[in-house]
Write a structure and sequence with these properties.
By secondary structure, the protein is of the alpha/beta class. The chain has helices spanning 13-25, 41-49, 63-72, 89-94, 117-126, 162-187; strands spanning 2-7, 28-35, 53-55, 75-80, 99-103, 131-138, 148-155. It contains 6 helices and 7 strands. It has a 7-stranded mixed beta sheet with strand order 3-2-1-4-5-6-7, with helices on both faces. It binds 5-O-phosphono-beta-D-ribofuranosylamine.
């Protein structure tokens, strides 16, 4: 059984979708959840699902130790799902080709530093874009610049608020993120 590690800072709806999907298919399991926020909703999900979790903190982060803790799980993938830090370089280098992220827009548009969460949807609506979407990509040392694995699109309707767009995007994320992970499980030699 392949192991997945999820990094998340927020509510964790993507984490929940991934956990539920693989509980059903049995092809992988989420073995560890890592968060930089002690009160993140994703930790309630970890507790409910009885998945081990780690809370990390920028000031006290021991990179060697965390790399060891992550390596112990022998992850097939490290999945960033609403993780608000730039991934420390040492971690990126320790898991080459194994860290993926989901971005709530069509990269390279609306990406880069400061473009996360609601800022993205505000900017897309303010620019009167006709469509937006999601990008699932590999993570490298630069924000939102790793190779793209999948993009999926949705319309931006006239009169959409950033919240309307966010919920349409969330639906795309919940459908495609688990299935993209499954695609990688089936098509990558681990
Ligand atoms: C998602 O929209 C994701 O694309 C972005 O942060 C959000 C996380 O939502 N990076 P959730 O915590 O999974 O509900």
């Amino acid at each position: 059984m392949h192991s997945l590690i999820i990094f998340a800072s927020g509510a964790g709806s993507n984490a929940a979708a991934i956990i539920a999907y693989f509980k059903q298919t049995g092809k992988a399991k989420v073995s560890l959840i890592v968060s930089n926020k002690a009160d993140a909703g994703v930790l309630d999900i970890a507790k409910k699902e009885e998945i081990p979790f780690l809370i990390i903190n920028k000031q006290t982060l021991n990179q060697t130790l965390i790399i060891e803790q992550l390596s112990d799980v022998k992850p097939f993938l490290v999945v960033l799902a609403g993780f608000m830090w730039k991934m420390p370089e040492a971690i990126v280098h320790a898991f080459p080709g194994k860290i993926i992220n989901i971005h709530p827009a069509l990269l390279p548009g609306y990406g880069g530093k400061g473009m996360y969460g609601h800022h993205v949807h505000h900017a897309v609506v303010a620019a009167r874009e006709k469509e937006s979407g999601i990008t699932i990509h590999y993570v490298n040392e630069h924000y939102d610049e790793g190779n793209i694995i999948l993009q999926a699109r949705c319309p931006v309707q006239p009169g959409d608020s950033p919240d309307d767009l966010a919920s349409r995007i969330h639906k795309l994320e919940h459908f495609y993120y688990p299935r993209t992970i499954e695609y990688l499980l089936n098509n990558t030699s681990a």
